[in-house]
Amino acid sequence: MGLRNIRKKGDPILKLKSRKVERFDDRLFTLLDDMRDTMYEADGCGLAAVQVGVLKRAIVIDVGDGLIELINPEIIETEGEQCELEGCLSLPGESGITLRPKRVKVRAQKRDGSFCEYSGEDLKARAFCHEIDHLDGHLYTERLAPQEVIARLKAETQNTEE
Ligand code: ZN
User: Fold this and answer.
1) How far is the CA of 162 from the centre of ligand 1 (A)?
2) What whole-number distance in Å separates Cα of residue 18 and Cα of residue 54?
3) Cα 161 to ligand 1 centre (Å)
4) Which whole number is the average pLDDT over 31-44?
5) Looking at 77, 79, 131, 142, which residue is catalytic?
């Protein structure tokens, strides 16, 4: 088990942009393994390399359907919108309602360097957006949903359920 320290709110590294991964070597594999262990230990559903102090475009996500590793991820499609409660391992004890796409499609590399596409809906879509935001130095607190959007989406959901 390789546990790393999770950088917390106020640490300036969280505002920096991460660099593209060019070398798919043992150092990257160790980083990904440690990120996985650190995420599970902290009971999170996603972690970006910058959160353990490494400015590389790599994230790990597990929303309950298995671990995925995304290297140099890019959002290539989004659809719809959702407002749900979101938190972050770097901002313990806090949460806020964010505005995110309902569905996203992501293109990324695996640890062997091959390209792959992933689709996510609801929680998984939020996790993709949240973690990819970290790679550009953004936190979910910059995506908080305006009150009127929350109200509109709530009304729309109720109409669909009737
Ligand atoms: Zn986060």
Assistant:
1) 35
2) 8
3) 32
4) 98
5) 131
CA of 109 to the centre of ligand 1 (A): 20
Question: Against a cut of 0.90, is the pTM above it?
Answer: yes
For the chain, give the mean pLDDT.
96
* Residue the block writes with tokens 């901002």: 91
Q: Residue 130 contacts by C-beta under 8 Å, 6 or more apart in sequence?
A: 46, 86, 88, 100, 140
Q: How confident is the model at residue 157 (pLDDT cuts 50, 70, 90)?
A: confident
Q: What pLDDT, on the 0 to 100 scale, is given for residue 130? A: 98
Q: Are 104 and 77 in contact (CB under 8 A)?
A: yes
Query: If we measure between CA atoms, which residue out of 36, 59, 84 comes closest to residue 135?
Result: 59
DSSP labels, 108-142: EE-TTS-EEEEEEETHHHHHHHHHHHHHTT--GGG
CA distance 82 to 86: 11
Residue 81: active-site member: no
List strand residue ranges (DSSP E) for the chain, in order.
46-48, 58-61, 68-79, 82-86, 96-100, 103-109, 115-121
Mean pLDDT of 63-83: 97
How many angstroms separate the CA atoms of 144 and 98, rounded?
4
Percentage above 90 pLDDT, the chain: 93
**Given pLDDT bands bounded at 50, 70 and 90, which one contains residue 162?**
low
